[in-house]
Amino acid sequence: MTSARVTSSRLIGRTAELAELEAALADAAAGRPALVVVAGESGVGKSRLLAELERRATDQGALVLSGDCVDLGESELPYVPLVAALRPLARSGDPALTDPVRAAVAPLLPGLAPAAADPGDDGRQSRLFEGLLSLLDALAEQRSVLLLIEDLHWADRSTRAALAFLARSLVAERVLVVGSYRPDELHRRHPLRPLLAEVERDPRARRVALEPLTRDELADQLADILGAPPAADLLERLWRRSGGNPLYCEELLAAGLDGRGAAPDTLRDALMLRVEALSAPGQEILRLVAVGQRVDHPLLAETSGLDERTLRDALREAVDSHILVADDDGRHRFRHALLREVVEDDLLPGERTALHHALARALEQRVDERAGAVLTAAVAHHFAAAGEQPAALEWSVRAATAAERVYAYGEAAALLERALELWDRVPDAEARAGADHVSLMWRAGQAAWALGHPGRQLALYEAALDELDPAVDPHRASKLLEGVARAQRSLNRPKSSIATLERALELVETAEGSDGEARARLLAGLARGRMLDGRFTDSVEVARRALEATTAAGMRWAEGHARNTLGFSLAMTGDVEAGAEQLREAIRIARERDDLPDLGDAYVNYSDMLHVLGRSDEARAIATEGLEAVGSRRPIATLWLNCQLAEFAYDVGEWDVSEERLPDPQRWTGVHTRVNLGLRKAHLELGRGRHEAAHELLTELQELAADSSEPQFVGPVALLTAELRRREGDLDAARAAIDRGLDQMEFCTDDAARVSAVATAGVTVEADAAQRARDLGDAEAEAAAVRRVDDLLARVAAAAVRTRPIECAMLLEARAEAGRATRRPDPAAFARAARAYEDLSRPERTATLRWRAAEAHIAAGDRDAATDAALAAHEIAGRLGAAWLRGEVEGLAARARLPLAAEPEPAEPAEHEDDDRFGLTSRERQVLALVAEGATNREIGAQLFMAEKTASVHVSRILSKLNVRSRTEAAAVAHRHRLS
Prior knowledge:
By secondary structure, this protein is mainly α. The longest helix has 24 residues, at 752-775. The termini are far apart.
């Protein structure tokens, strides 16, 4: 077998692709970090391109860190490419590895064994990733850093999570992250797809796609390999066979096919020709390396059965044939991943099993108390692949423990799930696992929780409870119930969660032998659940008990949790300053412990409390402080704080800022977060008059929040739905939304603020309903609407206490709307409500009430006052971008002939004017007929084949020509004059 070179000595083609990568590297060097993914089929030259980028980066003085992923299916080996990339730093003792940074990234540095981690603490992996970011930042202070990761289609879960973190968190570090993958490997449910989708949405991300070489480029490649231009017939034959794939072309040459013989049909066939040309010992070594993937010399000596001389000769043969290469650690691997796949695919089942078994037994001897997660998981993998079920169960549990120590919860979950699957097939399963079945289900559930999979956590814990007798083991059962409650809360089943916590607390408090920590933890969780459910009085009582219990047990983290809950609940029950002090103390405790989950929660609750109480400037300052404190270390907290800042900006009238600030849902966001983001988006769409988009969002939100009892979701969904239906003229649907929201909240909450908001919206709906009934001459319907107004007013009044200025403004608004419902619209009442909202910096409500005041002034015959009010409303609506509200003000001004400088209405084609007394066109009479039937603008557009916006223009013109204020009045006029 010849050892002649079979690859080109230089990079052929790829000029544009390399230029794009170098541009990204230059951006990184200038403090503009980026992430690039290089996509291309196997053999197309991804590795060669990245090797050239590495060479050029090194020449420019950049630090290059590189690693590649291994093919173990949904890999159980955590952080494989990151460990490989950082290994040189660990050896050299780089000064960037200060003690704090080294401690933070210990799981990624070979030879350091971090302390055991609790998989229930989802902040630990975030802290590991924060340490990685700090390390890259420190390294980049001296020179730019290039992090290369090949074969992302095989990336383990933890590596994917780390890359997602870096993509979100790199801001100004001089770092470029480049990864490669094969698009043809990505089936529809491939786990890399969500990561690629998330990364590629970032404007800093780039995608470089490698296509096969052109014919001329292939000629250059052949000339470089052969040392002379290829003959025309050889070029033609190789171009036709290889399709421009450079690896295929190289392999055809390496197999000695110069064009005179029959070429193999596929690249894999060509590769096998190379393999089959080796001696029997050489092929045996290839089979071992194919299964082991990275195998050092001692392991080959132990598992191959070859004597030392034969082994050396076989390795030399494989290396000289350009099939195997040795890395800096003395481990042998295939030169190209496809070569390894070809050899492994050629193995018979029995051969593959025997090789896995030999590797497992040999690696098993290397495991000691300091063994890392990668080695332990490799033993588990090989035993499982060999079909050794007892050993596979034992080592899967041991590997899961090692994965938990390095916060690799995805790998831990997979290993524990495998152990659970094997449990009934292994006679001595408990002895092998070193724990009983319930313990394994508990650990698997904790890992599922850390991964954001509450549904799986719930299933595991409920199954574990089925195997326990709470009367025999109440403490263990209560711990499982606590986990069940957490999962139920995440799945938006708050009532079930509270009931589960109450059951767990009862078990602990009635059990023999006190468990102060469990009791404190359960009380803190129960207090939080009742707070979120709007049961603030109950929450205060339970939170005080929790605070006492956590202090007695010395549980500082749980104390902060209890103070957080107590503070918000106290403020909502009227003791604002005491509540604020508890929240500030919760923040201090979280900062002291660097407890990111509690720190984020405390800032969210404190800023929300201030905003609810009308102190929006303070609320924005606190939320901004929270963002600075959390930084990029806890993405879910960052997302919630940004969402709150978007809400605050909307309420104070900075709608453009709100839209810019509002984050998009991420693949890792749960139901709670998606509902919160959706509500903010729906509010913006409704405010801007984009009713179709608001309708789509609210339809989704109604489904997501259907089973919720949390007022923070139930109230806004009801309010926004009612307002949308009211604008469309569907008052029955608007009323139903109000009733549904109040019913969901009032029987389970004392969240007066949200009950008041929904009830106030309900008064507006009933005022419209009373007006419509009068227009139609329906006295019974009018009386029913007025009766409902009285009931709703009582709810609003109950919340309007001195410490709740927003609810006091709502009461003024509701009373003004009640006057409209009872035929006594009082412009002074609307003006008082408008001023109250204005004092609270709530311009949308201010403008709405100025508009209502203008209507009332017109009814009273005071045109000058009406003009002033309409002008004020129009100016605010225009500044906000509140298109619907601005249109309503302009419609009012047109009907009343007020001197309002409005923008011209959209032009419409000239139509023949009918000779009816109102000057309606034939098209307008068609629209009016549908208005009289109660059709919405959307329904009018669908029936008359026009856009919803065009239908809205027609309706506005009709109201102006009829000199009426509302669609219901227009319907009444149409009925009286038989216009429809």
